Amino acid sequence: MHAHTFYSPDAIVSPEEHVKTIKKRGLDATAVTDHDTAGGWKRAIAAGRKEGIAVIRAEEIHVHHDGRKIGEVLAYFINEEIKPGEFLEVRDAVKQQGGIVVAAHPFDTFRNSFRMLEEYKKHMDGIEAFNARVLLNSFNTKARHFAQANGFGITGGSDSHCKYEIAHAHTEADITDINELPKAIKNRKTRALGHKTNPFIHTLSSLTKIGLLRPEAAYL
Q1: Which residues contact 134 (CB under 8 A, 6 or more apart)?
Q2: 45 inside domain
Q3: Count of structural domains within the chain
Q4: Per residue in 124-143, pLDDT tens?
Q5: What is the pTM of this model?
Q6: Residue 216 pLDDT > 60
């Protein structure tokens, strides 16, 4: 439910390799959530058809309040790319496409915690309660407690940026069709499971961002 391909500037895995790895690691579906772009969807969906993996059209979108960045949201089950912008504008764009909005790693103070969660929580459909890339366990603990206290459904995601990280965390739901997932999240019928990624792997994202590592050369 949280994965990046090299269509994100800090990721190094192709959509095809991502989908193949999802299958190898025993998952049924994946959400491609590249940063502020739908660039990887077409390739991921084609690979999904070939491998028998459902691919959810999704994005991780930067959101703002009065022009100031306040965090990121995961938009799922959308049909067209949505650009970063004011939170309520992004949220409305997701809803117009029939999608749902989940707060991404909302308490990770090292990576875009959601700084106005209390103010905007009524506009969320769920909370990412387990993110494998957080540096401190307490960030995930706070997210899970917030979800429980406010009656939110939860998701778990690897936040993978390279092949090594894929499926370190995942979301489970007792459904028979991937299109039932939004309802399961809203009705608190999902489980967020996984383990943290070794922080050393984050250096690959940093090297990619500054151009010292080429995506096509870095399939671990």
Answers
A1: 105, 108, 110, 111, 140, 196
A2: yes
A3: 1
A4: 999 999 999 999 999 999 99
A5: 0.92
A6: no
Task: Count the residues in the chain.
Answer: 220
How confident is residue 112, by pLDDT bands cut at 50, 70 and 90? confident
Q: Which amino acid is at 163?
A: K
Domain membership of residue 58 as a residue range: 15-213
Compute the CA torsion angle 176, 105, 73, 111 (nearest 10 deg): -150
Asked whether the predicted pLDDT for residue 109 surpasses 60, the reply is yes
Phi, psi of 101 (to 5 degrees): -120, 125
One-letter amino acid for residue 205 of the chain? S
Euclidean distance between CA atoms 165 and 73, whole angstroms? 20
Map residue 39 onto helix, strand or coil: coil
**At 42, which helix (H) or strand (E)?**
helix 41-51
pLDDT(220) > 50: no
The secondary structure of residue 29, as a DSSP letter, is E
Give the DSSP letter string of 99-147: -EEEE-STT-TTS---TTHHHHGGG-SEEEEEETT-SSHHHHHHHHHHH
Sign of CA dihedral 66, 68, 71, 73: positive
| pLDDT at 148 > cutoff 90 | yes
Give the integer Cα–Cα distance in Å for 188 and 14. Answer: 32
Share of the chain above pLDDT 90, in %: 88
d(CA 139, CA 129): 9
In a domain, 3, yes or no: no
How far apart (Å, rounded) are the C-alpha atoms in residues 36 and 84? 6
| CATH number for 57 | 3.20.20.140
5 lies in a domain? Answer: no
